[in-house]
Amino acid sequence: MANLREQVDVDETTQTTEAGDSPPRYAYCHWHKGLSGSAVLVQIIEQQSGPGASLYACAPCRQTYGLRPVGEAA
Ligand SMILES: [Zn+2]
């Protein structure tokens, strides 16, 4: 039941400024081909000619396809 309390606390208690500081950034996930708030830039290195491609992938797709966010060291 601890989860219930946390969800209630997060909901509209300390959020006095709405649509101001850090709005959710939706990015296009190239794997499920749709917008996702959890999409981040991932590095794809499967091209033999070139440095590879940088695409966005959301969290579920990163787990499914084993993708790593850019900047994540090893
Ligand atoms: Zn996705």
Could you walk me through the main structural features you see in this protein, from its secondary elements to its overall organization?
The chain has 74 residues and is an alpha+beta fold. It has a domain at 24-74. The protein has 2 helices and 4 strands. It has helices spanning 2-10, 59-65, and strands at residues 27-29, 34-36, 40-44, 53-57. The protein has a two-stranded antiparallel ribbon with strand order 1-2. The model has no long low-confidence stretch (mean pLDDT 74). The structure holds zinc ion (ZN). Zinc ion binds at residues 29, 31-32, 36, 57-58, 60-61.
Q: What string gives the helices and strands in order?
A: HEEEEH
Termini gap: 37 Å
Low-confidence stretches: none
Taking strands numbered 1, 2, ... along the chain, how are they ordered across the largest sheet? Answer: 1-2
Mean pLDDT: 74
| Biggest sheet architecture | 2 strands, antiparallel
Fraction of helical residues: 10-25%
Tell me the radius of gyration: 17 Å
Count of individual beta strands: 4
Shape: globular
